[in-house]
Amino acid sequence: MTDISPPRPDLWTLDPSVLHLNHGSYGAVPRRTQEVLAALRAETDANPMAWFRSVADRLTASRLELAAYLETDPAGFALVPNASAGVTAALATVPIAPGSRIVLTNHAYGAVKFAAERFARQHQAEVVVVDVPLESDDDTVVSRISAALNGSTAVLVVDQISSATAMVFPIRRLVEACAPDGIPVIVDGAHAPALLDAPAGDGADFWTGNFHKWPSSPRATAGLVVAEKWRSETMPLIVSWSEYDERLPERFDMQGTFDYAPWIAAPESLRVLKELDWPRRRMQLSSMLDEGARVIAKALGTSVPDVVNPAPTMRLVELPFPGERTPDAGEAFKIRVSRELKAEITLTGFDTRIFIRLSAHAYNSLDDYKFLAERLPSVL
């Protein structure tokens, strides 16, 4: 393993008696950002009228900073609560004719699959799920998905980094595969901000990603990037006073009596990442997780799956899961690990396999994963 900078748990307010190994689900907000957020909320309640008069300008400033971080056109960047909301807004925009097909893969996030099913029911369309093996290389991914595309395909919805399998998909090549038939592409980039550079730059019609994960911004902060051809038609999910604003970002900004403080505080977390020299630390964390995953797999007597393009700061370790393999059983196991080991983990499933999905951020060290390896066999 390469040398790694010392962990910085001091920048967060995480409970030091707990092993935090699942940043990828809900993130963790740095202390400084929490202080900015608390000050904004205090200001809101000190004079709500003055606060809401100031929101539009503050949102514009924050939005421009977040768009710059993604290296994307600010005129096509809107703020949304999360990537699921971004996917839903995109699906509400593309034309879905009766009898057409919404194509996604078996790596799709559950809520995104539900969104596709909802729109398919509304439009008498069909959801087509493409089987992409976990160990696929980019050529296999493109070949499998391309084979499912035809003249009746209304839209392709694809992960940039899959939540369940921590796998990076070749988005640019998939966009190119869809281009000849004019098939719109919606990219679920929930995990991409801060893990991939310029994640919205591969030419998709719609891209959406969360800032509350790896950028560590307050929760309910995400972005939606819309290609120019779709901007006039893309509408927020809530009808409010900005309904007739011709500009895409401003149309999404004002959603009634909403808590705008997280969106305004979000850039503070980007400044924390900058001070951490995040691109360098991200590489270090990736190397650390490779070793941590191997240590845990050895302790469990299992293996680390050969994901060709793994997400930089997430890894899978196969789990010899005891008993019945149901969502309720998985949740009960995670609660037991939390209670007995004082460790927070998450489980994911793919095909018939169960995995621990490990995550790492700047507050983690290799010792965290060694500790889990020592203790986890006792609860199996």
From TrEMBL:
It comes from the Bacteria. InterPro entries: Aminotrans_V_dom, PyrdxlP-dep_Trfase, PyrdxlP-dep_Trfase_major, PyrdxlP-dep_Trfase_small. Gene3D superfamilies: Aspartate Aminotransferase, domain 1, Type I PLP-dependent aspartate aminotransferase-like (Major domain). One of its GO terms (molecular function) is transaminase activity. Residues 88-192 form the Aminotransferase class V domain. Keywords: Aminotransferase, Pyridoxal phosphate, Transferase. The keyword Transcription does not apply. This is Aminotransferase class V-fold PLP-dependent enzyme. The lineage of its organism: Bacteria, Bacillati, Actinomycetota, Actinomycetes, Propionibacteriales.
